[in-house]
Fold this protein.
Amino acid sequence: METLSPISQNPTPEETSHAGIIHISALSTLIGVPFGSILGPLITWLIWRDRSQFADENGKEALNFNLSMFLYQFFIVILGLLLFLSPVLSALASDNPDPVSVILSLPGLWILLFGIGTLSLFRIIMILVATVKAGNGETFRYPLTIRFIK
């Protein structure tokens, strides 16, 4: 096992490439890889974390961010489905469906569509920013990130 090189102000081109790949691998979910936004950074981080402190720090950051985004999306889906389905299901269960229940379900649908869309766009932009920063030899701190891995 190789020893970690300390984080320096000038990481090597190999270190910046590895860190950039760790960040950009999260976009593998866009090409249909199930859980690619988590598995991509996890696998690439596990490969390079022992070789470079720079890759290790960027890998932790990418993994923490993508785990946080997954958690946020999960809660948005649960909240949106509850708000959308509860009025619809109660209307279907009653003998005399009320059109007001359809109107009451619209906020849930809005939360689902707008919330997931906005969070996905935010995620893509932050991943691209982090990839560019890593390529320039900087460690990027993602906003809205829960630090699962220290």
